[in-house]
Amino acid sequence: MRLTDQRLPLIFLEAHNIQNRNKGLGVFNFELLKALSATNTDFRLMANMSDRSLMTHFDSPLMLFHKYYGLHRKPLFRIRKRADIWHSLNQNTKIEPYHDLNYVLTIHDVIGLNGKGELRLLEKIKRAKAITYISKFVQQETHQAFEIPSGVMESVIYNGNPISSLLGTSSYQAIEAAKSPFLYAIGDFQERKNFHSLIQMMRINKDFNLIISGQNKSDYALKIKNLIENYNLKDRVFLTGIVSEQGKQYYMSHASAFLFPSTEEGFGLPIIEAMHFGKPVFLSTATCIPEIGGQDAYYFENFDPEHMHDKLMEGLHHFSQNEEEMEQKMKERASLFSWKKAAKEYLNVYQNVISGV
Q1: pTM exceeds cut of 0.85
Q2: Domains and CATH numbers, the chain
């Protein structure tokens, strides 16, 4: 680092969730830090994480490493690093600064907060100089659940598209079911992902296989496996478990459609990933999902299996009749969500906090 760089304001990025890039928060941390390192010229950025090797992805002399330890969760061992701004990259983190610093908070959702989680978030909101939200829906939900102090700077900064580069997929060993026309879904196996509605729909739909990727060791995953067994769908519904980035791109680019029936989301990154490949996306109308999907996505108005089947077949017919136009619309929608744009907006927040705007 140049001597003159030492005079630049220091932004401490609480990013320890970056370790798990199979989850939304891990993706958010990684992609935002990567974009910040490529865009920033005005600040020193210090990333709090456990794995120093990740720094190889952030090619900038202004990106610094701070070692994360689990003990930092406890008040006595809070991080004592002096910084011009502390940025909590998600609302659930238990890692807080020891000192009273300018505090920026990013809220991803307020879904399912329990008593302790609600109190923790309330304390963050009280100390925040600025709050950013990943969707307008999240901002609205936060305002309904909490009183935001006057004077707090607020902004909505959309996430970018996690697919920053296309990987070659010709060498990827996909499961046998992908050799036939298939529908694709991805996500952690949690009740709110609503994968069971897809299993029920597949009792009616005989035209496609269904492939679902994601961590499937939970109680909800067992429920899904039992439904597949009970409905005799083992030859048409397949669970891959967690897939690599190459695998995800393979399935998204080869699927006939992407399905996302989730009932609770703060953003919904897989939606724009599928749109990036020009694929028709079939979504629920819940929470922020229409805000991200836009007017050219297809929507399930309820989760009745026959309704979902009819919406799917009608949408696929419409897409095939207007394929070139609809592919372009999907890709254009995905292009609206850029990590470079997001990084510039976060850097602007930092500047406003420091200057007291």
Answers
A1: yes
A2: 3-160+338-355 (3.40.50.2000), 176-335 (3.40.50.2000)
